[in-house]
Structure formats: C-alpha cells, structure tokens
Amino acid sequence: MIKKIAIGITLFILLGFTLANNFRELVLGKLENYAANYPEKIYVQTDKPYYTTGEDIWYTAYLVNGISHQKSDLSRVLYVELVNEKDSIVSKRQLYTEDVSVAGDFKINKDWKSGKYLLRAYTNHMRNDDADYFFQTQIPIWNVSEHDTLNKKSKVLSNTSFSTKKGAVTPPEIGFYPESGYLVNGLNTKVGIKIKDQAYHDIELKGNIKDSNNNVVSTFATYKFGLSVASLLPEAGKTYYASIMFNGEEVKYPLPEALPSGYNLNMINSGNQIIVQASSNTGIGLKNTFLVAHQRGHLIYERLETDDKNNYKVKINTAALKNGVVSFTLFNSSGNPVCERLVYVDNQNDNANIKVTLDNEAPKTRDKVSMQIDLTDKTGQPLSGNLSMSITDIDAVGQSAQSENIKTYLLLNSDLRGRIEDPGYFFQKENDIKRRYLLDVLMLTHGWRRFTWNDLLYKPPTKNRFNPEKGILISGNTSSLNGNKQPIPTTTRITLMGGLPYQEKKQTDVKGVFNYGPFVFNDTLPILLEARVKDFKSDNDKKNRLVSIALNNTNFASPKITRNDVLKSTLLDSSKINSFLQQAKNIFQIDVEFAKSARVLDEIVITAQKETEEEQREQELNDRTDYGYASKRLDMKSLENQSHLSIFDLLNMLPGVTTLNDSIYVRNETPAVYLDGFQVELIDISHLTGSDIDFIDVLSGAEASSFSNAGNGVVAIYSRTGANISVRNVKRKPGIIDFEAIGFYTAREFYAPDHLNGFEEAMKADIRTTLHWEPKIVLNENNTKAEVSFFTSDKKSNYAIKIEGITDSGIPVYHLSTLEVD
Questions:
Q1: This protein's superkingdom (predicted)?
Q2: What is the number of domains present in the chain?
Q3: Chain centroid to CA 224: how far?
Q4: Which tens digits make up the pLDDT trace of 1-17?
C-alpha cells in the first residue's frame, strides 16, 4: 500500500513537471512568434509644435521594427494624415522609404479653421492592430485671418481646467498601484501612488497609510508629477487606507483589499542590475511557477521553478540589455499570469551622442552659418544613422528638453498605457537618483500596452488582413469577352511609360488573376496593360484580343479616427503663443506688400525672358527623347485649345503625314509607331486625344536612324506626365487598358533664403519662425560627419537647434541646443 502511494506521488510530481514544462514551451513559442512577426512603430518629427494657416508643416517620419528599433524589413510604404477637429482627413501622403526615414510636408490651407488638428502615421501592416497603436500627435493651428484669433487662443490651447490655488474645494484624486498587481497578506510589497489631477502634480503632498485600527503603518510624500511610493505588509483581518490633510480636514482613500493568499514580485533597480524577488504564501509556494521577462517582446530571462520554496531572488545584469521597458510576469502552476511588474533599463552604454559645431558662434542677422554634426557612441566612435533637424525661434516657438521626442516615444510612450507628462524629464540627467526613483514609480503606475498574456497564449491565431507593402502593386483579372464572360487564363503585359519605360510579361493563373510589382515611382505614371488569349505573337487572329481586363482597387479607405492615445504638446505657453501669432500676422502682411510691389517687375521679367522660356521648352522635349531634336514636331502646349482632337486629327496637322480610315501614312508609306519609347499597334493609340499627348515627332531619313525599323519613317508620340495628371477612369478596349497610377509623394524642398545671392531675399523682410529645416541627414561609413548651412533671418533672437533620429543599431537620439543671433 505504501509503495502504491509513493508511486502515485511520483507520478503526480512528474505530471506536474510535464505540464509546467509544456506551459514554458508554450510561452517561449508565443514570444518567439511575436518577435518574428514584430509590430512596427512610427515616429514623426515636425519642424514646430504649432502653426498658422498658410504655413507649411515640414516633417520626417521614422519607421522601425517595434522590437529592435532598427529598420523594419516588413514595410516600405507608410501613410501620414492630417485630420481636423471634425475627424475629416484634410490632407494625406503616401510615402516610400528605403531605410528608416522619409521626408514629407503638408500645406495648410488659408481657409482652414483654427483648432486642434491630429497628425497620424501608420503602415498597412499596422492596420492589423488597433488604430491606437498608430503614431498620433496633436497639432494646434490658428487662422490668422480671423480677427479674434488672439482672443480664441485659450479655446484652442485648453487641455486642463484644474485650479492650483490654495484653498481649492475639491481634494485630489489618488490612484494606488500595488507592485505586482495585488496586495497579499503576509507579503511585503510596494504601492505606487499617483495624484491623477494634474493641478496637484507639482505640489508636495504628504500622507500616511493607516490600517483599520487607524494606526500609521507607512508614510509617503509626492514629488514631481504627483508620484510617490509606500511600503506595506498587509495583515489578515485588516484593511488599509491613505490619509491626507486637505484644507485642515482629513481625507481618506481606501487601498485595494489584500488577498488571503497569492504571489508577489519585488524589484530593485540599481541601474547596472535588476534584483528580482519572487514570493508566495500559497500551499505549494512557488512550485511549478514560471517567471519570464521580455523587452518589447524579446525574451531576456526565464525561470521554471521546480521546488516548493516560498521565495527566491535573482540578479539580472543590464549591461547587455538595450534601453527601454522590461516586463516581468510570473505565471502560477495553472498557467495564469498572477504578477506583472515593469522595470526601465537605463543602460548608459546603449546611448548615442550628437555634437553640433558651429563655424560662427555669434552670428549677426542675415549671416551664413555652417554647422558640423557628429553622431558617436559613448566612447566617441562614429555611428551610422538617420537624423532630421529643425531650427526655430524660441521667442515664438517654445522648446524644452522635457517635451516629447523620438527617444521618449520609442522607449516609453509607445510601450506604456496612459499619457506620460513631460517624458523628456526622465532622460535629462544620467545617474540622477531622483530621476531614477521617479522613473521606477512611473513603471509602477503604468502597464505594458502591446499585448496581454491571456490573448497571446490562449486566443487562436488570426491571419493578418493587411499585408506589409514594399511598393505599389497592380493586380486584377482577365475574362472572356465572348459567351458567359468567365475568367480565363491569358498572357499579360504591362508597360510603365515614364522617363525610362519598363515592360514586363506574365502568365495569369487559371482564374485569370495577375499581379505586377511592387513598383516604386513618384507622382503619377501612365501605364499600359495588355492581355491576349494566346500570346502576343498571334495578333493576326482577331479572337486573340477578345479579353476583358479588370483592375483591383488599390486605394483603401483610411482607418477609423480615434483619439485615445494622442501626444499633446506641453509647450503651449501663452506668451510664446502671442508672440508666434503676432509674428505670423507680420509675415502675412509682408507677403501681401511684397506681392503688390513685385507685380510690375514680374511683367517686365516675363516679357524679357519669353524667348528663353521657348528655348527651355524645346530642351525639355528633346530631353525626353533618345534622338534629341526633331524637325517635324507638334507641341500640344501651344495647341491647348485643340486638346479635344483625336490623335489622327493631330497627325494630319504635320507636313507629310496623312491619315485615312484610322491608318497613318508618311509620304505614302506606313511608318512605325512608338508611344513613350515603345513600339505599339494602331489600336493601342486610337483612343488618344490631345489631352493625353505632350508632343508628337515625325522622323524620317537620318533623323530616324536611331530606330531599327525606320525605313518607312517613325511617328513618335509622347504622353503627358507630371503633377498635373490626376487619376482618371480606366479606358477599356479589347485586350488593352490604359490608366494613370498614383505614385508616392515627393516632399517639397524647404525654402532656405540665400541672403548673399538671392534677388527676392534682398527685397523682402525675413522674420521666419522656422529658420531652417533639414529633413534627412544620413551618416554612414562614407559620411561620418554631416555639414549643414543656412542663413539667419532679420530677427535678433535665441534659436533652438533640435535634432532627432535613430542609429542603424536602433538607438533613438535627441539633441537640443541654442543659437543666439545678435
């Protein structure tokens, strides 16, 4: 009998260990899968935190792997949107990046209303998660043409309405956050304390933790941001509350009720190491519990406890870890997460430094200033990375090292729940005891937001609805024009008719589905798509072209607008806002006066340069061709009123060319016909009108010698290209369609005045609030130092030099310094 009991106990122990080990493999497998299919993060730096109508928003978007913060290998395409207060998207950009950053801009319409606009950025892959994971920041915009704009500023800026005056009638709201999630009788724990009312954040608030017998068991005092911590050892049969004196009276705040049994994780973060103490007062202690620690989903520590001990302690060296939030979770023997604690790793070896050297430390107004930018590690060795820089007038545009930046966003805000006030404060001073203390309390009062363990472990995996985009895809299907018009397999060919024409041929699948791309091009691009029942060599058979081509719609509706997690500027100082708005009004008046004085001068300049513009147009057309000049050319720019004519009507205008019954003859011979450098059939151009054509050349003899089949002459047709082309309805013909695809947006170049050589700059006052914007500074092995030059304006002021970016190894960097212009 005793032998059977011993065998049963052994089997029970083995079963428990097997189940615990299986659970360990489940957790590690899910984490590994999360890392392999990592989330993406985007951060957007703008040149200023707020704007007026008529201005430009200059920005650089950074797209990274959400775990390593290095270049994402998933997406190359991202979307940036500007949204008004009514949740209407007023401007949208589709951008392409080859590395981690890409420049963009928005032109603020002069008719837009004042308000709190939303700038958000995301990738198609990020749409698989909640829109709250998009990058979202609030951008205040004022309409300077409104007479009462200055009086409305409080309406635009107001984020809080709390009173900080002594004798306030409403006591503060206080939140309590036990270190591991719960208070447990008999287990000593820390309790994070947070004053939720922002008005009390900078007021020292002292209080006591008392038990149900009104005995003081602990004390606390809040510091910056209304944060504090207290220590508590709950006892069975007792409850606890926090007590503060408010306006001479005691105010009581009940603490969460302690559990009779459970678990606890206690953390001590000394900077170079994290000491973890796990404890439990359950019957089996910590037996078969599993402790796991990850940083943004990357596993850094795991422990499966096989003994029935009540506590253990481990030390984790932070020297090999990256900066950022580490999440510790303890699972009980049933596989349920029972404790979670966040710790911030502040590894000084994982920092990068930016050094700015000016050639002119004391520039005057309208002086040229050159600067050298160095990006190095802690030892001074050069690093590779991408940076962006803004230089703004501090009198009008407030700047603070405590404000949100790429470092605070990637390392804190994008991983934690809830808003963090003045996040830059936590990165200002190295090895500062108070800063480290408050940062640890911040970890106590915020939770990990990227995933919950129960969802990750036990919810069935769902297939992503939205795929990462590497470029522009052109897809669709082909079907028969005869009979039941069912999908049929065909041979397809695509021709991209840009500056350098590209052609590719593919066979569809059995259902007629074709896919081309991903392509990378900017603005708009004319595209010719063809399909044949057999192949392109069988065009003598009229049935070969009896194919219908249908394109898939690649434009998706923007995701739903949410404002749950929006970064809000902490720089809304009323005096600076007044200065900014007054300066904006002055700039507006200067522009109006300069435009008036320049009109007559413009007319003179246009008359004097008319011949030069014609020469420039001729050179522009010659540059589009492989053969250069053509003696017989029809330029549609000079025939805008004839844009409705067909291609055959236009050809009849050229000497030596006749058309008859949709046939073309050059001196009674049938010429070869080319469209944007590719030879085509007459049916391929028969739909063209003057609105589609930029110019037509007719070549014969020596002029046509660059073409291999030019014995009977060549008709070379070139379609319109450029920013004036908008998306049009696809024109459908048997076996062929042509359309214009919208490409990626190309950022405009920031207007940087040249006060030495510029004509307009010499005649016009210069009081810019953004002195300079440099959207992309690339540092690598071949370019370890960046050189940037700009001119100061007419305004004597202090200017903030703000540089943000990320190294190739994934270290976010931030630099803020000042430049005084006398």
A1: Bacteria
A2: 4
A3: 31
A4: 555 555 544 444 445 55
Using the predicted structure, report yes or no on whether residue 724 has a pLDDT greater than 50: no
Q: What CATH number should be reported for the domain holding residue 764?
A: 2.60.40.1930
Pairwise CA distance, residues 570 & 558, whole Å: 29
Helix (H, G, I), strand (E, B) or coil at 635: strand
| Least confident piece of the model among 97-106, 235-244, 719-728 | 719-728
- Going by C-alpha positions, the residue among 78, 25, 141, 760 that lies closest to residue 466 is 78
Cα–Cα distance between 297 and 595 in angstroms, integer?
A: 57
| C-alpha distance across the termini of the chain, in Å | 98
Question: Does residue 242 form part of some domain?
Answer: yes
Rounded-to-integer distance, Cα 287 and Cα 203, Å: 45
Whether residue 595 is predicted with pLDDT greater than 70 in this model: the reply is no
Query: pLDDT value at position 600?
Result: 46
Percentages helix, strand, coil for the chain (3-state, rounded to 5) are 20, 40, 40
Pure H helices in 409-529: 433-445, 453-458
493 vs 497: CA distance, rounded Å: 13
Query: What residues does 355 pair with on adjacent strands?
Result: 374
- Examine the domain organization and report whether 672 and 777 are in the same domain: no
| 146 to 52, 111, 182, 504, 585: CA distances (angstroms) | 11, 10, 54, 55, 11
Averaged pLDDT, 667-680: 85
Tell me the pLDDT band of 373, cut-offs 50, 70 and 90: very high
The answer to whether residues 727 and 754 belong to one domain is no
CA 393/CA 755 separation, integer angstroms: 18
